[in-house]
Specification:
The complex is a heterodimer of chains A (116) and B (116). Chain A is mainly beta. Chain A contains no helices and twelve strands. In chain A, a hairpin with a 7-residue loop joins strand 10 and strand 11. The termini of chain A are far apart. Chain B is built from no helices and eleven strands. In chain B, the strands form two sheets. In chain B, strands 2, 4, 5, 6, 9, 10 and 11 form a seven-stranded mixed beta sheet that branches. In chain B, strands 1-3-8-7 form a four-stranded antiparallel beta sheet, with no helix packed on it. Chain B is globular. Classes of the chains: A mainly beta (116), B mainly beta (116).
Chain lengths: 116, 116
């Protein structure tokens, strides 16, 4: 069965510094996708970055990168040069390609606070 | 192209009343998801559809909840009768499985339900 774990309920980071948000997952499906979403205080869900289980390189999107360690089943989000606007809730999500179809489940989330 | 459209944005009702939440997915998307978000339980997948057919409704909490997708451009989530513990933000999301896309979810703005 799919399972996503985010063990950090809250994180603080100083503006302009880098921060890593942890995510571990569990699946028996050899093909899966991992996602990170951002939810600002306004409530909308914003897609940030995607990593496929067969991708050889870690995904990057601007200041976001995904530290994918397949053997450890971890998919940590790294935000470089934090900005005040990065303060938000961040969710890790997983989709299994075969056994779960397009079923996508989410972790509990990590609330990030960026300090000026 | 318009995003996922949900209505109503806010709903306040009394216990025992019927509530209907509506969703219009992005045109051309073949998957539609309903999620419920609460502080205590995070983002829970309630049900998802593929080409208008329900694929997995194991997350629907109980028989008071039902969802339909009569066509590719419309879905409803109904709660009857509603209870105070149903108070939450309900998100609809859609995605496409074709064209080599990653399958990231496109979320609506959510429907905030308060049951008194």
């Amino acid at each position: 069965a799919q399972k996503i774990t985010q063990t950090q309920p809250g994180m603080f980071v100083q503006e302009k510094e880098a921060v890593t948000l942890d995510c571990t997952y569990d699946t028996s499906d050899p093909s899966y996708g991992l996602f990170w979403y951002k939810q600002p205080s306004s409530g909308e869900m914003i897609f940030l970055i995607y990593q496929g289980s067969y991708d050889q390189q870690n995904a990057t999107e601007g200041r976001y990168s995904l530290n994918f360690q397949k053997a450890r089943k971890s998919a940590n989000l790294v935000i470089s040069a934090s900005q005040l606007g990065d303060s938000a809730m961040y969710f890790c999500a997983m989709r299994e390609a075969y056994t779960g179809g397009f079923k996508t489940i989410f972790g509990a989330g990590t609330r990030l606070f960026v300090k000026a | 192209d318009a995003g996922v459209i949900q209505s109503p944005r806010h709903e306040v009702t009394e216990m025992g009343q019927e509530v209907t939440l509506r969703c219009k997915p992005i045109s051309g998307h073949d998957y539609l998801f309903w999620y419920r978000q609460t502080m205590m339980r995070g983002l829970e997948l309630l049900i998802y559809f593929n080409n208008n057919v329900p694929i997995d409704d194991s997350g629907m909490p109980e028989d008071r909840f039902s969802a339909k997708m009569p066509n590719a451009s419309f879905s409803t989530l109904k709660i009857q009768p509603s209870e105070p513990r149903d108070s939450a933000v309900y998100f609809c999301a859609s995605t496409s499985s074709t064209g080599g896309q990653t399958g990231e979810l496109f979320f609506g703005e959510g429907s905030r339900l308060t049951v008194l």
